[in-house]
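Long-time lurker. I teach an intro course on protein structure, and each term I like to show students one example going from raw sequence to a predicted 3D structure in token notation. This year I'd like something fresh instead of my usual example. Would anyone be willing to generate the tokens for the chain below so I can use it in lecture? Attribution to the forum is fine with me.
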Amino acid sequence: MDYIVAKKQSQFGMLVVVTDADIVGKKFEEDRLQLDLTKKFYQGEPKTKEEVKQIMMTARHLHLTGKGAVAIGVEMELVDPKKIIFIDNVPHAEIMNE
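-- Reply from a regular --
Happy to contribute to a lecture. Here you go:
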């Protein structure tokens, strides 16, 4: 599986956005929740799983969207499986490293 990774530097540290490549450019809605993966926020560079893991270690904040991206976060013990939200069956997790 391929991933799209966007890095954004802020005054609070590095934000890394990791999204499964096959869902970038799509929009998911459920009730009042929405994941709009057409936005520039989710645009980035293609990366492999190993590259994603390395980049995630540099992040202060993480936005993970898609089964593969969230699974990496769980595998690395960065994501609590109980805190994953699902919008139209698409998993999403946000992490803030202290």
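Some talking points for your students: The first helix runs from residue 49 to 56. The radius of gyration is 12 Å.
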